[in-house]
Design goal:
Number of strands: 9
Mean pLDDT: 84
Radius of gyration: 25 Å
Order of helices and strands: HHEEEEEHHEEEEH
Helix content: 25-40%
Low-confidence stretches: 93-102
Structural class: alpha+beta
Number of domains: 2
Length: 219
């Protein structure tokens, strides 16, 4: 059997277009056979990982095995059609890591914190309790753009807070959260709306870097 170097030398020695087209056809056929064999190695329910957009690692479950690709339901809420060569099968002997939204109930702060200006101490305690519960939930989430992340937008002299409730391929659905203070909302989003994945991912990265800097400064 010829080794790779000999095969390449043989191809480079070809001078006929018909011969080159025959080689191209054979390579395409062989590639299809290898891909079909790779696809056959997956089955519904398998836990897999792969590098998604912006080189972010996605972890999910095989939902469907197609002719050339594998459909993956990612823990982040996205659905992907992934070439089998990009997938890494996770150890099935270990418990599957569930979506953060499944492990821990996702808060949805729709009720404003009751404000009694005659007892501001009670208001501050209620606000602190809400943030303590929220921060506890945020600590269960991985870094990056995932369902459940809380993000903020500078509005006037405060912030408008929104929850990531769904991540699609190109857009992210956000829902307003009442975290205390003036409970500002973003006019571009309203109570619930969508922004581009790239914009939201960049905002989350910025907030996570800032959080790490503040934690380092405090230590």
């Amino acid at each position: 059997m010829m080794n790779l170097s000999q095969v390449l030398d043989a191809v480079m020695s070809l001078e006929s277009k018909d011969d080159l087209q025959a080689v191209q056809s054979a390579v395409k056929k062989r590639w299809g056979g290898l891909n079909k064999r790779a696809v056959a190695g997956f089955r519904r329910g398998m836990r897999v990982s792969f590098n998604g957009r912006y080189n972010r690692v996605e972890v999910g479950t095989v939902g469907k095995v197609n002719t050339k690709t594998v459909s993956v339901d990612a823990d982040s809420g996205k659905q992907w059609r992934v070439p089998p060569s990009m997938l890494k099968v996770l150890d099935e002997g270990t418990p599957a890591k569930q979506s953060p939204a499944t492990d821990t109930p996702m808060p949805d702060w729709q009720d404003a914190i009751p404000a009694d200006f005659r007892d501001m101490d009670a208001y501050r305690k209620a606000e602190e309790a809400r943030w303590a519960e929220e921060n506890k939930y945020q600590d269960t989430l991985p870094e990056g753009l995932v369902r459940g992340k809380l993000i903020r937008f500078q509005i006037a002299d405060g912030y408008a807070y929104y929850r990531v409730v769904k991540v699609n391929k190109t857009t992210v659905r956000l829902r307003h959260q009442k975290m205390g203070g003036d409970d500002w909302s973003n006019p571009a989003i309203g109570f619930e709306g969508t922004l581009g994945v790239r914009q939201v991912a960049a905002l989350i990265r910025q907030q996570e870097v800032w959080k790490k800097l503040m934690a380092k400064k405090a230590s």
